[in-house]
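Exercise: predict the structure of this protein bound to nicotinamide-adenine-dinucleotide.
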Amino acid sequence: MSSPSSTHPLPSYLDPQHLGPWGIYLQQVDRVTPYLGNLSRWVETLKRPKRALIVDVPIELDDGTIAHFEGYRVQHNVSRGPGKGGVRFHQDVTLSEVMALSAWMSIKNAAVNVPYGGAKGGVRVDPKKLSKAELERLTRRYTSEIGLLIGPTKDIPAPDVNTNAQVMAWMMDTYSMNVGATATGVVTGKPVDLGGSLGRVEATGRGVFTVGCEAAHRTGLKIDGARVAIQGFGNVGGTAGKLFTQAGAKVVAVQDHTGSIHRAGGIDAHALSEHVQQTGGVAGFAGADVMDNDEFWGVDCDILIPAALEGQLTEANAGKVKAKMVIEGANGPTTPEADDILNDNGVLVLPDVISNAGGVTVSYFEWVQDFTSFFWTEDEINARLVRIMQDAFSAVWQVAQENKVTLRTATFIVACKRILHAREMRGLYP
Ligand SMILES: NC(=O)c1ccc[n+]([C@@H]2O[C@H](COP(=O)([O-])OP(=O)(O)OC[C@H]3O[C@@H](n4cnc5c(N)ncnc54)[C@H](O)[C@@H]3O)[C@@H](O)[C@H]2O)c1
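Solution:
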């Protein structure tokens, strides 16, 4: 008897011509499949989300009209533990994008070996157009609508683009009201007074710094005296800049949405951070010279840290990069074409799925502290974060050496093997 056709290449709800970020993710999985050995038997499980929920989020606006917004929560994979991933409020969010982001969370969580699967959520809304009261109503209704999927042992949202600690507080409160008990562990990235964790705000930048030091150590690059260029001087870029400076490196160039600044002798990262907090950007900082935005990517430096937006290093500018190492603080800052150019030019790229995993690692600590209602000191948190990032990087580095692949492919190999091994050990239900 011929076997029934068991596998469709794409879910019926996706348009093969417009796969968006999900298409990039599928290519990444295809690229690592040859390295998965016997586990490749399970690889189809990575090519479709476990669950994708689309919800209608109606709210009453301040002027009395009713507005409807489209929301999503996608759980890509929960073989290794509950879903974990942020919630994005943005007018251009699509199901395909949330699916890809949820899949990248599966990879990131497995790469740093925290006991989570991958998930992500989003609402198609421009939150800047909402009043605070409207934003709260939107958050609460969205949380109620996805309430059947989320929970401290099921799926734990966190902040992402345009969501913050206040939004997490509203999500935690809404979920808690619905279940009839305070459930701090349902979201992470909460205010510290509501079960949030010390060290969470700096965690991603600290992770960027930690993997940078690990890679520098292995490639003979001295951090003391190294020249660093950073795009984005917000949470991630600003923290990384300060930590590299403390370790003896020099921040020589910074670009953000207000412009680019340069000083070959080194920019005072702490003073710049204060300036950014006071004025909203790097423009007008007295301790550096203005630089043309186009010159930023070709600046003389040893370490380049894109920590702002996706798609910044492209075919057009990757060839100009003089740095020996790129540490991806942002999600998806390097296009696949730029990745190849950097690799051909001998620039070591530390990929986002490991470099910016410090945030989710301290989110994991927040969740653990919420369960035990016992809160750690900032020093304990930072020490545990550094250890996890070092161990994770070490495993990825070893796989890259053994297979002679890039660190991005190596991270996918490590992560996909962990996910599929869990899948295999659990077996298929029923
Ligand atoms: N915060 C986290 O824990 C975390 C975790 C993982 C990944 N990330 C990623 O890191 C990146 C930065 O996040 P963040 O929390 O530091 O955000 P943030 O809002 O604190 O800072 C963003 C920075 O990007 C700059 N920027 C915005 N538009 C720009 C443009 N057109 N050109 C140059 N610079 C521009 C801003 O000026 C700002 O300095 C994002 O891609 C985010 O998804 C953040």
